[in-house]
Amino acid sequence: MADNLSSLAIIIVTYNSTTEIGPCLDSLVGHTDPFPTSITVVDNASSDGTAALVRARWPSVHVIASPTNVGFSRANNLGIRATGGDYVLLMNPDTVAPPGAIQTLVRGLAAHPDAAIAGARLLSERGFPELSWGDPIGPWNELKRKAFSMLYYRKIRRIVRKVDKLSRQAREVAWVSGACMVIRRPDLEAVGLLDERYFMYTEDVDLCVAMTKRGRTVLYVAAAEVLHHRGRSAARNPATERLYRQSQVAYYEKHLPRWAGLLRAYLKLTGKSAADG
Question: How far apart, in whole angstroms, are the C-alpha atoms of residue 27 and residue 44?
Answer without folding.
Answer: 22
